[in-house]
């Protein structure tokens, strides 16, 4: 089936759209790079409040350039930089 964010037919991992509530959370399949990027870009709070659907993630301004780039590669692992907000949130 492939990654629901970048659309590549690669191995995927399960992302919980509502990270704090894994038991009841809907899930989507994301490739490793997209999954890492999502968690490096957004805090769990932001994910829960604003990006709790795959459509919202697909339309997120802050993911556009990443998705555009990764979709043209065959990379299955990447280094990602955490956003300042995520870094602060992690403390
Ligand atoms: Zn992907
Ligand atoms: Zn996740």
Descriptive overview:
- With 91 residues, this protein is an alpha+beta fold.
- It has helices at 32-41, 44-50, 54-59, 61-70, 84-90; strands spanning 12-16, 27-31.
- The protein has a two-stranded antiparallel ribbon with strand order 1-2.
- Helix 1 (32-41) runs antiparallel to helix 4.
- 21% of the residues are buried.
- The structure holds zinc ion (ZN) (2 copies).
- The site of one zinc ion has 4 residues, from strand 1 and helix 1.
In short:
This protein has 91 residues and is α+β, with helices and mostly antiparallel strands. 44% of the residues lie in helices and 11% in strands.
Order of helices and strands: EEHHHHH
The radius of gyration is 12 Å
**Number of separate helices:** 5
- Kindly state the mean pLDDT as a whole number? 93
List cofactors, ions and other ligands: zinc ion
- Number of DSSP strand runs: 2
Number of domains: 1
Class based on secondary structure composition and strand pairing: alpha+beta
Unreliable spans are: none
Q: Work out the strand percent.
A: 5-15%
Oligomer: single chain
């Amino acid at each position: 089936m492939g990654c629901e964010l970048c659309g590549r037919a690669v191995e995927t991992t399960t992302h919980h759209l509502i990270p704090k509530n894994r038991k009841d959370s809907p899930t989507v399949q994301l490739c490793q790079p997209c999954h890492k990027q999502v968690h490096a870009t957004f805090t769990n709070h932001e994910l829960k409040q604003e990006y709790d659907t795959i459509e919202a993630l697909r339309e997120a301004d802050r993911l556009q350039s990443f998705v555009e780039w990764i979709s043209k590669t065959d990379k299955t692992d990447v280094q990602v930089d955490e956003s300042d907000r995520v870094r602060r949130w992690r403390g």
